[in-house]
Write a structure and sequence with these properties.
Length: 531
């Protein structure tokens, strides 16, 4: 039978034992037969609450061009397994990662990380670590299996969102794959060298896992009547040591009658044993060096702590609030609704507290605009210039010096105001980080409570949806106001820096003019004396 076969079970019951889906034709597919379960008795007796066992559900069968597709477990099909553990940020339980070699040929391209999300394969054969390098063959044939529920898949469920958590996870997976490759490569090299040397173990057939039958020296040569040995066509030179081959007929007699009989020379076995001992010592030294390198790599793999900004934390809060909303949509009981409303009210109160703190942060010193102060300074500078031009007396010079000192004090006061503003900004950012951390904790506790509650799905009322929508809009407004405040602070500080630099240049000019006036006065007094 062609087409898609669907099985709908665990339907939600409305009042008076009426199912939510009652008119759709549902075909239950088994191995050989198909049953139509459209017309059934909607009484409570005909609707079991739970199946007899987990195996009572029919398994999915896939047919491609008339042939059934055989399913294969990845964990069971890999060899030389080794488990590693990775603890992501903001997670308590570590994640198990299993690495192994494929049973297929090593030249195949099917190797890499198999990434699952809630028992669903999202990304297959994602290459990490040394597998990304195209110029070498490191990491070929290594398959890793990990269930990464902390990552977020995209809407098509074909890839993950490439954010900071994904990049950190891929980096740690690559380091662990490199370690696994280094460990298993050394063991495989030793195994291959032992098999090549022979003498210690018997070679086995990889298909049957059995030792091949031993061959006899005379089998297939002397028993064959058409062989050249039986036809007396092989001759052995008398000068060589020769291989001990048995002959029949007149050639055996001719060899025995020669003056110099064939003598077999045996090679001494001491040189072979010495070579084997040398190779074993070299392999031990290589293993020691590899172990030291692995230890250094393990020491280097301490994960770096990444500092997250306030905007990123707010984005994470948004995503977690959306997840909470979906989980609340799935929950059915009145207790979950009450907890959701309580949490919404708490979030409202916290948002109001944040708003009040932001409003309080507009202190009187910030309200004093820098433009007014700069205009006052400019007027004072102009007055100073006019005074210096009009009068050359000592009293004017003293007043100019006093005014310059006053300007310097005012510049110092401006610097102190700027430092205070920076401190206030840092304090605000710290308070925001602390509040976001507390919100994260509360969201995590909410998730735990929702997961522990085993209840049926309940549709949210329109009022709750409107409240959540309003909350989202308020959060967006708060974020925009926060960004505007930060931009305004940055602009003001930038303007103040520019104006301070201009004031410094003007002060330098005034000092030079003062020195010129003093020099001109002294030069004029000398002229008067000379006259």
């Amino acid at each position: 039978m062609a087409g898609a076969h669907l099985l709908v079970f665990l339907l939600r019951m409305k009042t008076f034992a009426i199912l939510s889906i009652d008119t759709v034709v549902c075909l239950v597919v088994f191995q050989d037969n198909v049953r139509d379960v459209t017309n059934f008795d909607p009484s409570p007796t005909a609707l079991p609450t739970s199946p007899d066992s987990d195996n009572s559900f029919p398994k999915m069968i896939i047919h491609i061009r008339g042939k059934t597709v055989t399913s294969k477990s990845v964990l069971k099909s890999i060899n030389d397994k080794n488990d590693f553990y990775y603890t992501p940020r903001h997670e308590e339980k570590p994640i198990r990662i299993t690495f192994g070699f494929t049973s297929e040929d090593e030249k195949t391209e099917n190797y890499g990380m198999m990434l699952y999300h809630r028992n669903r394969l999202i990304k297959a054969f994602e290459r990490v670590g040394c597998q990304k390098q195209n110029h070498n063959t490191h990491g070929t044939g290594v398959v890793g299996v990990a269930e990464v529920d902390f990552l977020e898949p995209i809407h098509t469920k074909q890839d993950f969102i490439r954010n900071e958590m994904f990049n950190n996870a891929m980096k740690s997976f690559g380091d662990k794959l490199n370690r696994y490759w280094d460990m298993k490569r050394t063991t495989r090299v030793l195994r291959n060298t032992r098999n090549r040397r022979g003498g210690r173990g018997e070679s086995r057939d990889p298909a049957t896992n059995q030792t091949p039958p031993k061959r006899e020296i005379n089998s297939g040569i002397l028993d064959n009547p058409q062989s050249p040995v039986n036809q007396n066509q092989i001759q052995i030179s008398h000068s060589t040591g020769g291989i001990g081959m048995a002959l029949r007929g007149e050639d055996r007699a001719t060899i025995n009658q020669t003056d110099s009989p064939v003598q077999r020379t045996e090679e001494p076995t001491s040189s072979v044993h010495a070579q084997r001992e040398m190779s074993a010592a070299q392999s031990k030294e290589e293993l020691k060096t590899k172990m030291n390198e692995l230890q250094t790599e393990i020491d280097k793999t301490n994960s770096e702590e990444v500092e997250m900004s306030a905007t990123q934390m707010i984005e994470e809060l948004k995503t977690k609030i959306n997840e909470l909303q979906t989980e609340i949509d799935k929950s059915n009981s009145e207790e979950v609704e009450m907890s959701a409303t309580q949490m919404i009210e708490e979030l409202k109160t916290k948002i109001n507290e944040l708003q009040t703190e932001i409003d309080k942060s507009n202190s009187e010193e910030v309200e004093m605009s820098a433009a007014q102060k700069i205009e006052e300074l400019n007027t004072q500078i102009n007055e100073l210039q006019t005074d210096i031009v009009k009068s050359n007396s000592e009293e004017v010079e003293m007043s100019a010096a006093q005014k310059i000192e006053e300007l310097e004090t005012e510049i110092k006061d401006l610097k102190t105001v700027i430092t205070k503003l920076n401190k206030d900004k840092n304090d605000m950012s710290r308070t925001l980080e602390m509040e976001t951390y507390e919100l994260k904790k509360e969201i995590y506790e909410l998730k735990k409570e929702i997961a522990n509650m085993n209840c049926e799905n309940v549709d949210m009322s329109a009022t709750q949806q409107e409240e959540t929508h309003k909350l989202k809009q308020e959060i967006i407004k708060l974020e925009s106001e926060k960004n505007e405040m930060i931009d305004a602070h940055e602009k003001e500080t930038h303007k103040l820096k520019k104006e301070i630099n201009e004031l410094k240049t003007e002060i330098d000019k005034l000092k030079t003019e003062k020195n010129e006036l003093i020099s001109e006065k002294r030069y004029g007094s000398k002229r008067k004396k000379m006259s």
